[in-house]
Amino acid sequence: MSLEVDLQSTLGAFKLDTQLRAGQGATVIYGRSGSGKTSLINAIAGLSVPQNGYITLNDQTLFNAQKGVNLPVHQRRIGYVFQDARLFPHLNVAENIDFGARYAEIPLSLKQRDAVIEMLGIGALLQRRPAALSGGEKQRVALGRALLSAPNLLLLDEPLAALDMQRKQEILPYFERLRAEGGPPMIYVTHDMSEIVRLADHLCVLRNGRSVAQGTAEDVLANPANMKLIGVQDAGALITGVVDHHAEDGLSGIRLSAGMLFAPRMNVAVGTTVRIRIRAQDVILSQSEPKGMSSQNILQAKITAIEEGVSSGFAIALSAGTDRLLARITARALSQMELKVGQSIWAVLKANAVPPSAIAPS
Question: What is the dihedral of CA 105, 106, 109, 110, to 10 degrees?
Answer without folding.
Answer: 30
